[in-house]
Amino acid sequence: MHKAQARYPPTRPTESATGLTTRQAQTKRAECGSNTIERAEQTPVWARVVAQLRDPLVLVLLAAAVLTSVTGDFADTAIILVVVMVNTVVGVAQAIRADHAVTALSDLAAPGVRVRRDGIECELTAAELVPGDVVLLVEGDVVPADACVAEGSALLVDESALTGESMPADKSAPDPSGEVQPENLLGAGTVVLRGRAVVEVIATGSNSALGRIAVLMREHPGPTPLQRRLAHLGRVLAVAVIALCAVVFGLGLLRGEPIEAMAITAISLAVAAVPESLPAVVTLGLALGARHMAARHAIVRNLPAVETLGSVTVLATDKTGTLTEGRMVAERLWTPTGTAELTGSGYGPVGQLRVAGSAVDAEAVPHIRDLLTAAVLCNDATLVPPDTDNTQWRALGDPTESALVAAAGKAGLERTCLREGHTRLAEAPFDSVRKRMTTIHHDPDDGLRAFLKGAPEVVLTSRFLTTDATGLRIARHAADELAAAGYRVLAFATRRLETLPEPAESAETGMTLLGLIAIADPPKSTARDTVAACRAAGITPVMITGDHPATARAIALRLGIIGERGATVLTGADMSADSTLDLTSARVFARTTPEQKLTIIQAWRTRGAVTAMNGDGVNDGPALRRADIGVAMGKRGTEVARQAADVVLADDEISTVVAAVEEGRRVYDNIRRFLLYALSGGIAEIAIMLIGPALGMPIPLVAGQILWINLLTHGLTGVALGAEPVDPGTMHRPPRPPEQSILGDGLWQRVLGLGVVVTAISLAVGTWADHTGRGWQTLLFLTLLGAQLGVVTGLRTRLLTRANPSLPIAVLASAALGLAGVYVPWLRELLGTETLPAADLAPALIGVLVGFAAARAARWIRFLIRGSAENDRAPIASGGPAPTPDPAGPS
């Protein structure tokens, strides 16, 4: 594991007075290049096509296409080629789409910036900036490059997209006597929420924070678990098909059969043994899965991602805006007289003030009313009610101050009335050095009144308050407890004045403590249930955030990601200090950089986990790209996150991920169900051709009959099987081990078992017909087809469900076409069958029943085996079997 790079170099501004000269800027631009994100060299389309065609299963299908064309089965040839073409087009389109993620970073650059050049202000494009340039920033500006603050006034910057921190960061110029600190530095792509600043550019282009993220996002995660499993299956099938067909061809020659006839038969068997409809079933299943996921607000941008979600073993997620609402909310109030809580979410004045568990109005609780009055008046934020364009209340100004205004509204205090009755006369604004704000207002009752708001460590001192030592100790203890619980805590105080002081700061003494307000970005209402659902499904939840460790720990505890006994939180500093840490032993990571998020994801993948990363910020982009499956928020997510992701959540609800996982598992189950059906039929056809001659049937089936059965089973019913609904209990079983073969977990044994049953009933009917003088080859043909149709019906999850009407329709259509091969003259001549009396069809019907019974028995035996194994585990709350518990999870 590599150590994370330092985000900013330690430097201090040097040219703040006049900036660079034009000549200096030209020289530096020649050295450093443009302030743009360098794009990786594009892979030509032809190379992408070749890469898709090198897939082992595709090579098998191309060989099958050649073989079917040799036999004259041009319909099958066309079908196979269409499937290959569709898969290739989809794969190439997905590869091209993946390259768009890096280009989205360039959209974060400021379109124009104010710069000092040659001692005067001018406007340039962000691409023209070089290190050493002096840039002027005001509220609403996007920071165009990494920079150090030279001069700042009340500067507040939103760094959430870049760092993952839920709280905006106060920024200021460095102390002349000390080193440059993070609070003196700005990252490219961040947004100025308040104040103004003069900054000096210290890094541009690929050397900036955005540039380093772009480099990390060029790495591709590799093939998905399904793609790896299908590639392995393709190699196995290729070897097996060639070997078996060679055996059939050789035995036929030993019996004296014509070379041409045996060559056609061997080729027909090769086509029958290859499940050429598998890519069609996979593509259809993935497409239907994507459609179902879209109906559940998960937009799939990469089709294989549908199944990959079903294989996920670790869900790593960002915190801010993903597990939490992404909006600050005041939740707890403390005063020297008592405590209270506020309910409700968002910035809307919808909620309750609760004291001792009962809802009250602030007017009835004077100490709470005075605290919230101070919170509204010592405040510059404004709330905007819903309108035709926005359905929710919005904040104008500092999100923390907006939360205070919303809190007063929930408690029944009208913000407008408060401010109109308490006209602001003077103020000392908040900044990162003072860490406090003071406003002075006209008070209708007392003349003048000052209000103080600030960090508890600043306000709760005898310098500002008249509170005695015991009272201060109690207040500090309350503030420490709230901070340890993950809250951002603000302290408030007030003082009555006789005259208006000058300056306003002189009123910050002799004040009376009003209390504390604890603010947090609360978890989404569905987040805890989502975490519980992940655990029930055997998925390990992991939180990776750039936020404070105390905040991360508090949210993780509230959501059940960790328990009190497993509450270790690793920080980015821990990772940098010790490269030997086992990152897969922790479930919560805080203060992480984009590089470290990438390292955590890679640690899990190295361990063999199938990882999903859920995020919304620029800093999540590399991890979204590296994870096996990237999931981005659609509404609040950045364009970078959306472009890097495989799935976009249109509703920004992490609970949608669980629905998507269920859909992915359904798709994979249906692919395995198709393989069970198709391969058992293929084995039966090969076994019949090998064993039949020993029972007196020289050529049990001719090439046309084999291909007709193959078309009706693999084609019509096989494709319809891919749309089967989800199995009950799917989300109460662990995900399949990533290293498990697609034929693992007993599937190949079931393939052999069903193949033996279909072979036995087909040969039994054929032998009986031969000995009784009936049309044995035609009866063998119908019985083999009927037995396979019975198998596909018996493999259904729920026999009488209406969720997939295409399967019973396909079964009936295949049966009708099978009978047409016996009773339609021109088709009968083509296939080499003969007309049978209606009474002779009874054995074929027996084959249907035997195939159906065998498939149901196989399902019940598997269910009983799996059930007995899972019953050895502890039950979960919802009543289903629980996967192996996560040792680092809740106690």
3D structure, described in words:
- The structure is a single chain.
- By secondary structure, this protein is of the alpha+beta class.
- It has four domains: 22-39 and 105-216, Calcium-transporting ATPase, cytoplasmic transduction domain A; 279-297 and 660-729 and 743-870, Calcium-transporting ATPase, transmembrane domain (Up-down Bundle), CATH 1.20.1110; 310-324 and 525-652, HAD superfamily/HAD-like (Rossmann fold, 3-Layer(aba) Sandwich), CATH 3.40.50; 329-520, Calcium-transporting ATPase, cytoplasmic domain N, CATH 3.40.1110.
- Helix content is 45%, strand content 15%.
- The chain contains 29 helices and 26 strands.
- Strands 13-12-11-10-20-19-18-17-16 form a nine-stranded antiparallel β-sheet. It has an eight-stranded mixed β-sheet with strand order 8-26-25-24-9-21-23-22, with helices on both faces. Strands 1, 2, 3, 4, 5, 6 and 7 form a seven-stranded antiparallel β-sheet that branches.
- The protein is elongated.
- It starts with 21 loop residues before the first helix and ends in a 21-residue tail after the last helix.
How large is the radius of gyration? 35 Å
Strands of the widest sheet, in order across it, are: 13-12-11-10-20-19-18-17-16
Proportion of helical residues: 40-55%
Write down the CATH topology of the largest domain: Calcium-transporting ATPase, transmembrane domain
Query: What's the pLDDT, averaged over the residues?
Result: 81
Strand content: 15-25%
Count of individual domains: 4
Category by helix and strand content: alpha+beta
- CATH superfamily caption of the largest domain: Calcium-transporting ATPase, transmembrane domain
Distance between the termini: 30 Å
Level-1 CATH class name of the largest domain? Mainly Alpha
Oligomeric state of this protein: single chain
Shape verdict: elongated
Report the total helices.
Answer: 29
Strand count: 26
CATH architecture field of the largest domain: Up-down Bundle
Largest sheet: 9 strands, antiparallel
- Poorly predicted parts: 1-10, 101-110, 868-884
